[in-house]
Design a protein that fits this description.
By secondary structure, the chain is an alpha+beta fold. The protein is built from 6 helices and 5 strands, in the order H-H-H-E-E-H-E-E-H-H-E. Strands 1, 2, 3, 4 and 5 form a 5-stranded antiparallel β-sheet that branches. Strand 1 and strand 2 form a beta hairpin. About 17% of the residues have low confidence.
Length: 182
């Protein structure tokens, strides 16, 4: 649509010019530049599909097949089946080796954040973040993996942990599937 409008504008400018230019070249260029600089919309038909909603039973079967521990119960108020899954919460604690210089610490922090981003992208971690105080527990990561051994392995591959600046304390943790943070 904007291409058609642009073409019409250019055509009108040329028709109105005739022998005598009523509009300067500079003004035309500014108009064209302004029009072209706007994002061009296009109409593309996209079939919007509703996300496939799985039953608690289907989710439980899928998770169990992948090695996850689960259980379910019926919520008395809503009469819905609530599926609980075991996750692993890693407490990132102040480690024994804290003598890195400022540059080394900055590099380790950059590598630490890249590691956490990778864990999230690969689907191994669902949420991570630091605590807001300066205590011995520096932050948490919640791992969405079937075993504590796997969670320990992933958490201990963090560059900050390898360098001794952080250490891991891992705990199994249960949460309902599909319930968002509020």
């Amino acid at each position: 649509m904007k291409k058609i409008v642009l073409a019409c504008m250019i055509l009108l400018v040329f028709i109105s010019c005739k022998e005598e230019a009523k509009t300067s070249v500079k003004e035309v260029k500014e108009t064209i530049t302004e029009t072209v600089a706007e994002p061009i919309d296009s109409i593309v038909e996209v079939e919007i599909k509703e996300p496939v909603k799985k039953s608690a039973r289907q989710l439980k079967e899928e998770l169990t097949a992948k090695g996850f521990k689960t259980f379910d119960y019926v919520d008395e108020k809503t009469k819905d089946t609530v599926l609980m899954q075991q996750y692993f919460m890693a407490f990132l604690k102040r480690g024994p080796i804290r003598g890195q210089n400022e540059e080394e610490t900055a590099d380790l922090q950059k590598e630490h954040l890249a590691h956490l981003a990778k864990m999230y992208e690969l689907g191994y971690a669902d949420i991570s973040g630091p605590f807001g105080d300066d205590g011995d527990i520096r932050g948490i990561t919640i791992y969405n993996v079937p075993t504590q051994k796997m969670a320990d392995s992933l958490a201990n591959s963090d560059p900050m942990v390898k360098a001794g600046r952080l250490e891991i304390e891992m705990h199994p943790w249960w949460a309902a599937k599909g319930f968002p943070l509020r």
